[in-house]
Amino acid sequence: MSAVLVAENLRRTLPGVVPVTLIDDASLVIDRGEFVAIMGPSGSGKSSLLYLLGLLDVPTSGRIELDGEDTTAFDENRLADVRLRKLGFVFQFHFLLAEFTVLDNMLLPMLRLGRLDPQAAAERAHGLLALLGMDGHSHKRPGQLSGGQRQRVAIARALANDPLVILADEPTGNLDSHSAANVQKILRTLVDEHGKTVITVTHDAAFAGRADRLIGIVDGRIDPHWVPPTLAPVGIQATPKSQ
Amino acid sequence: MMPLALRIAVTHILARKRQTLVSLSGIVLGTAFFIAVSALMRGSEQDFIRRLIDNSAHITVSDDFRSAGLQPAAERWPEAVVAIRGVKPQREVRGIRNYREKLRYVESLPDLRVAPVLTGSVVLTFAGRVQGMTLSGVIPATIADVTTIEEKIVAGSLDALAANPNGIVVGQGLIGKFRLAMGRNLAVATSEGAVRTLKIVGIFRTGNAAYDETQGYVLLKRAQTLLDRPNRVNRFIIQLDDPYRAREVARQIEQRIGYKSVSWIEASEDIMSLLLVRNIIMYTVVIAILLVAAFGIYNTISTIVMEKTRDIAILKSMGFHARDIRNIFVAEGVIVGLCGSLGGALAGLGLMHVLGRISIRVPDMPGDLTHLPLDRSLDQFMLAFAFAMIATIVASFLPARKGARVHPVTILRGAT
Lengths: 243, 416
Ligand SMILES: Nc1ncnc2c1ncn2[C@@H]1O[C@H](COP(=O)(O)OP(=O)(O)OP(=O)(O)O)[C@@H](O)[C@H]1O
Ligand SMILES: [Mg+2]
Fold this sequence. Notes:
By secondary structure, chain A is α/β, with parallel strands linked by helices. Chain A has helices at 46-53, 76-86, 102-113, 118-131, 147-158, 177-194, 205-209, and strands at 3-14, 20-31, 35-39, 61-66, 69-70, 87-90, 165-169, 197-201, 213-218, 221-222. In chain A, the strands form 2 sheets. Chain A has a 6-stranded mixed β-sheet with strand order 6-7-8-3-9-10, sandwiched between helices. Chain A has a 4-stranded antiparallel β-sheet with strand order 2-1-4-5, with helices on one face. Chain A is globular, with a radius of gyration of 18 Å. Chain B is 57% helix and 18% strand. Chain B has helices at 4-14, 17-55, 72-76, 99-108, 140-146, 149-152, 158-163, 172-178, 209-214, 220-226, 246-257, 264-267, 269-307, 309-318, 322-357, 378-404, 408-415, and strands at residues 59-62, 112-126, 129-138, 153-156, 167-171, 185-190, 195-204, 215-219, 235-240, 261-263, 359-361, 369-371. Chain B has a 6-stranded mixed beta barrel, surrounded by 4 helices. In chain B, strands 11-12 form a two-stranded antiparallel sheet. Chain B is elongated, with a radius of gyration of 34 Å. Chain A binds chain B through residues 47, 51, 54, 56-57, 76-77, 80-85, 89, 91-93, 95-100, 104, 108-109, 111-113, 118, 169-170, 173, and chain B through 1, 4, 8, 11-12, 14-15, 310-311, 313-322, 324, 408-409, 412-413, 415-416. The complex binds adenosine-5'-triphosphate and magnesium ion. Adenosine-5'-triphosphate (ATP) binds next to strand 2 and helix 1 of chain A.
């Protein structure tokens, strides 16, 4: 399997009188079609790492290569273009645009990219919504949907431009257990049946258990020996990639 | 298919109808007032200037010089003369010297009409009452060409004056004050003491009370004998076909004949600068109204930007550029500004219509209704539109730029 995302010696420091180091010397390689879970204590830097890997934040030092492209020297607009074409995001909060219908929310990234004409984009949107069991709701507003339904629309939107990598930050954090299980299943399916790469941050050990690999973060550093507390007794071992 | 930014902008606006309506009505009112006030001010200014042009001589050549001539001693020894004491003005009969020759020159100029006038002060006595009067000696045929006096005559005529060397035309104010009537005689005394009896052959009424009480017209010849200035006039009154050439023609005449020639523009400089001040005040006020309206737009767009930081964050994380985000909010301002200024132009037209229907009864002029003078020219619509658009674009650009700078990570962190 080929690497889709390579991070080398990432460091992210917030400047200030007392500089805060969010991520310290993180290196990792993520392969195409891999399902990776990032875990760690609260405040350890999971989201910060995800923002760096998702090219939303720029590392203070270090290098990120996405799909063979070194993004180090990219300016804000080029990073945005890479995100548009190759990345999809799902957050704990759904972040759907409240005044737009489900369908229009789906269309925004597609029309921005402009690869498809409006007709084809709408067809694709309907297809993705159907994949997530949401096609019947395409003309509703986000406010008319349940939390689980909104999150499924958010996943569909993340898939709109057929991204290489989907980055999710606690996508089930706000959901009831039934909806959470559903979202987890969907992400797993995306990897297994659609060849997507998924990187997700989660507090949920059961969710992490569905992943191919678990990356532990403690105090901004990747900790190969970190074991999620609830998994340890059951005997499932985290498999951090050795450097 | 609308551009994406525009589509998002329209959706934002439609989702905030009340707020949008408030800032919209600000622009509508601002533009409408701009147009209506401008129409009124410009209309009254044009009306005023037209009256000024109609009722005053375009150029008056008088028996004055702009600068006093040099004393003979100063002319003889220009280097040596330091000061001359006890200079007495020359006691000459005032008036334009050799006026016939100078009149011929002015008459030779194209596109103008000229009338020679001799003006002087006399004293009227009637039934024991005495009053000063400014007497103008005129040639009826030429004075009718350069003043509106003929239109203002309410009884008798200038022709009657031409036919009667002892006739006089006076104002209605004097008639009322002295209880006179057509055909009655008036005793006119000059400062030299000569007294002559003149017969009233015409009555005029200009509406200017002072003028109607103190002015009188006689034949030029009669004035010359009365005032003891044979073969002299002290004024040329000139009307031009194009009143705006007055300054230039006046300069030309003055250069040629030497006597002071004053155009109406020069004569009304104080009024002109008053009009300028009035315009400055007006435009300051209407622009202030538009600025307040622009603050309304600024406020609206700022609020939307603030409410939409999450949307901005997600759009940017999806791959929208800062410029795309800015365009969304600028488009919102432009939509409001465009609708507002178009609506304002319509409302301005409506206001003009209402103002145009107001009629004013001028006191002392029974049956004479005047309408507010309005300037309906297109350029003030353009001006109001341009101001409104510039104001709204600036007002929306500032918050839009702020919105475009929102960093998605800051918002994402805050939201989770
Ligand atoms: N703007 C900031 N200024 C100072 N410290 C910050 C700032 N943003 C984040 N941090 C700190 O950086 C650390 C990492 O934050 P991050 O959000 O990545 O943690 P996390 O592992 O995602 O936590 P959680 O599980 O609660 O989501 C935290 O200790 C946080 O307090
Ligand atoms: Mg987090």
